[in-house]
Amino acid sequence: MDTAISVCLESFISAQKFSILKQMKKTFARYISSNKDSNELLFYLLQGLVRENVNLQRLRNGDVEPSRAIIAHDDFLAKAKEHNIHDVRDFLESKQFVQGNFRYYKDRKEILYEL
Fold first, then answer.
1. Which one, of 57, 68, 72, lies nearest residue 105 by Cα?
2. pTM (2 decimals)?
3. In this model, does residue 92 exceed pLDDT 70?
4. Are 92 and 75 in contact (CB under 8 A)?
5. Which of 45, 35, 40, 37 has its CA nearest to residue 75?
6. Is 13 helix (H, G, I), strand (E, B) or coil?
7. Furthest-apart CA pair in the chain: how many Å?
8. Nearest-CA neighbor of 53 among 24, 25, 76?
9. How far is residue 24's CA from residue 4's CA, in Å, rounded to a whole number?
10. Three-state DSSP class for residue 78
11. Least buried of 22, 28, 67, 88, by fewest C-beta within 10 Å?
12. How far apart are CA 28 and CA 38, in angstroms?
């Protein structure tokens, strides 16, 4: 069903004038992209935040290898929004997230990655 909605929206939006097309793509971006593609992108973005976190910890601790990385949910959400993904809840409960060795602590709004 999501794919059908996505195809219909893409078709309708592409038939519009350029200025309207641009605004409509921005407005409907979360409905156009597929969930699988979004999850792949979110996984990649989260891995990038982990790398940044680990590198920062190494700099602070004199190249000592950290045992985990903690990513603030708000930082992850901000990174996702840069790519027009406004809802990460499904990803945080996805098989890919869990198999990637990530855990989400809703009460602390943190994502934990054990190295």
1. 72
2. 0.70
3. yes
4. no
5. 45
6. helix
7. 56
8. 76
9. 18
10. helix
11. 67
12. 14
What is the side-by-side order of every strand in the sheet holding 110-114?
A: 68-72, 110-114, 102-105
Answer whether 70's CB lies under 8 Å from 54's CB.
no
Residue 17 tokens read as 């004038």
pLDDT of residue 63: 75
- Asked if the model's pLDDT at residue 33 lies above 60, the reply is no
Calculate the CA dihedral of residues 74, 28, 90, 111 and round it to 10 degrees: -20
Which residue has tokens 């641009």?
22
Provide the residue type at 60 as one letter.
R
| Look-up of token digits 């855990």 | 103
Q: What is 7-59 written as a DSSP string?
A: HHHHHHHHTS-HHHHHHHHHHTHHHHS-HHHHHHHHHHHHHHHHHHHHHHHHH
